[in-house]
Amino acid sequence: MVVCGLACWRCRWLLPLLLGLAIIMGIIALAGRGWLESESEPYVHQASLWDSCTRSQMDPNWSCESLMDYGWGRAAAATYLVGFVILVICFALAVIAFSIEILRFNFVRGIGGLLFVVAAFQIIGLVIYPVKFTEEIPLVGDNMFSWAYGFGWASTVVVIGCAFFFCCLPNWEDEVLGNIKPTYYYSSPERAPYLN
After folding, report:
1. 3-state DSSP call for residue 28?
2. Torsions phi, psi for 94 (to 5 deg)
3. Digit-coded pLDDT (tens) for 70-107
4. Which sequence ranges are marked TM in the entry (predicted)?
């Protein structure tokens, strides 16, 4: 029987895999045009982290305005982007850490600390954007924060989970490295009366 929990050397690639998933979701959030969209027809508004586009009901062409002209737009983009860059660095460090035969557990805990920094930067960007966007950009009709914005939050949630696991992994150092001998419990039927 093979038992493979998180604190298991055979499953060491689970955490870097989750960080890779967070990177993919972060790329979708950075490149996606669905941070804010019109909720129903006529679809007259859509926005990304970088710009806000509107169109009239009669004109099919989008007219875009850069959010980088606003201080809050630059701040939201910069904080999310800085968090994303640190996330990529953490992914590379995690791959290196789990590739070496002798795992350096203080190194792993440092990756967990960096992941908390990533989460802080991303949360700041994800909070600045909707608050200031709804205050300073005129909205037409019913609008909603949409799929790309959701991918940004999903990436952040995965990063927070990974940060906890990276910080707690050194507590299971012996189990991960296989330094603990298994304990077997066995009692034969003829010896059972003597054990009482």
Report:
1. helix
2. -65, -40
3. 898 999 999 999 999 999 999 999 888 877 766 666 67
4. 12-32, 77-98, 110-131, 151-172
In DSSP terms, which residues pair with 80 in a beta bridge?
none
- Burial annotation 147-185 (CB, 10 A radius, 16+ → b, else e): bbbbbbebbbebbbebbebbbebbeeeeebeeeeeeeee
Average pLDDT value over all residues in the chain: 81
Q: What share of the chain is helix, strand, coil (3-state, %, to 5)?
A: 60, 10, 30
Identify residue 21 by its one-letter amino acid code.
L
CA-to-CA distance for 121 and 82, rounded, in angstroms? 7
Closest CA to 90 of 18, 148, 7: 18
DSSP output for 69-107: GSHHHHHHHHHHHHHHHHHHHHHHHHHHHHHSSS--HHH
The order of strands in the sheet holding 63-66 is 63-66, 51-54, 45-47, 36-38, 143-145
